[in-house]
Amino acid sequence: MARKQKPTKTGLFYAREARHMSRTELVKRSGVSKQQLSRLENGQIRLRLDHLKPFAAVLGYTPEQMLLWGRYPGTGGGHIESSDVLREEGAHEEPLGPAIGQVPELDTRAGLGGGGVPAREVRKDGKHADPVKSEGWVFPGSFVREQLHTSTQRLLVLDTNGDSMTPTLMSGDRVIIDTGHKTPSPDGLYAIRDAFEGIVVKRLQVMRAADKPRVRIISDNPNHAAEEVPLKELEIVGKVLCGLKLF
Fold it and tell me: For 118, how many CA atoms within 13 A lie in the half-sphere containing its CB?
């Protein structure tokens, strides 16, 4: 007689556990019934992204992260999928990027003016692969929610370099960027791709009077000229939320 297979816990279960949230509280905040939640957590229903959408805002994880729990950066499971964080050949006994729950720091050294220092780990973002430092940052959840008004999973720290944004940002300053904010509204500081595929921080101003939207790319240092490009040609990595300065 075949033995009944024991249900396997899904990423939804581990996401709730990671937030130290009871099943009762998640039911109350998501609006999903306790019976349905139990089936989803115990693998009695094959998970789809639409099943997980009601829980995303409550738990602070995207549906993709919960669906691919343990194989997606920022989730548990003891490893990071190689398609997201890659190690160069020849590396031994070194961490594969930041620990789970940490905000990764890009190590492009192209933050404000070009140049590059290769790193062992890279974080893939579409067609780009950006160097990542082996250690990340940990920010209090209340700071991320109440001050930055975003989620940890959307954050990146960028180590800047160059003088094009002085005096606002000095070479070596770090900034926190929200990778989920890719529309240049409101005007302000954004991390963008430059012509050499590096990441630079610039002040963006949308030229709203134009027939076709254009964006003015401004350096706060008056010695660096501004330029204008069509909005559709501008690749925005994220909005700069705040800086991390040493005094």
Answer: 4
The string of pLDDT tens digits covering residues 105-116 is 887 553 344 333
The partner residues of 191 in beta bridges, in order of sequence, read 201, 238
C-alpha to C-alpha distance for 79 and 95, rounded to whole angstroms: 10
- List the chain residues with pLDDT less than 70: 1-7, 72-100, 108-129, 210
Structural domains of the chain, ranges and CATH numbers in brackets? 11-67 (1.10.260.40), 102-244 (2.10.109.10)
**Which element (helix H / strand E) includes 28?**
helix 23-30
Tokens of 131: 């160097």
Is this model's pTM higher than 0.85 or not?
no
Q: What are phi and psi of 43, to 5 degrees?
A: 75, 20
E strand spans, the chain: 85-87, 105-106, 121-125, 128-132, 155-159, 174-178, 188-193, 199-207, 214-218, 227-230, 236-244
Alpha helices in 48-200 (DSSP H): 49-59, 63-67, 141-143
Handedness of CA 68, 141, 151, 60 (dihedral sign): positive
Q: 59-95 pLDDT, tens per residue?
A: 888 888 888 887 766 665 433 333 333 333 333 334 4
Which residues lie across from 122 on neighbouring strands?
Answer: 86, 131
